[in-house]
Amino acid sequence: MTRQQSAIIKGIAILLMMLYHLPCISTIPGIDDSVYPTLARACHPIQYFLMISGYGLYLAYKNGRITWSYLLKRSVRLYISFWLVLLVFVFGIGTLLYPERFPLSWDYALTNLVGLRWDYCQFTWVILPYILMTFCSPVLFLFMDRMGNTMSLISGILLYLITGWLISRHYNLLMNPPFLNLLHLITLTIMTFLSVILGAVMARIMLSGHKLTWAKLEGKNLLIILVLIVLFIVRCQIETSAVTFIFISIVVWLVLHLRLPQPVSRVFESLGDKSMMMWFLHGFLAVQMFSEYVALLRWPLVIWIVWVIICYGIACLLMPVSNRIAKSLRIL
Question: What is the spatial distance between Cα 47 and Cα 251, in angstroms, rounded to a whole number?
Fold first, then answer.
């Protein structure tokens, strides 16, 4: 998988994430409540990001670059982007326009800054589990090297199914506490492992000298897109999340065969490069702050497109600032 391909997959993932969260703009008129839950079954944006992370982290691990310093720098870069968005849209614009939505007491501010709470934006719940996963990754990859691909996948699937079963039985305890407690953190972190393992297995296949793609399918864009559409429709009909990892793996494998025109490829690459900043931005902008104005656009597709464009534009402004801060701290 090339850097270009990973950026394209992240670009697709951020578009799916914003589609997945579209019903959170609760004032959209004329929406059938059954539509979005059905569409949401085929989105799974976080799993794509985790899979790409697993691929990149495993390559770094095999190249001897995974150290505590490396992992700490990755975590700080993520926090810099997150804190920059908080500074502008919570502690700045948010408290001025909507003080009731963004309380500034010390406990709220500090716990939200770290990721122990997500009162300011519910979409930031994954920050701390993601960081914990990255610090667990050397141990995870060590076990993978010893167990091999098949046993690693079986172990990851079992962990995924067990945590899914526990969540289905004890949702309020494990997934909906008032703040991120230890049990919640452990559950969410374990849930990330399977997607990371899938990405690492792809890296292991590539490093073993085998291709990740099938030569006869490469460049067959129309066929691939038709298969992706059928796959999307089929996934929308399946209620259980137990098959999510299969769906994600097939989608990523198919996307690797696409040979997109350069302008289209550049659009998805640019979206992918700014996906982390857009991830943080989209919840604050349309859900927490301006949902009543966004909903005036009426049509969900128009709302989604405008939402994407605005988040992308602001990400273009904030990313250089984030990178400059990271560079000044010598972590870029």
Answer: 11
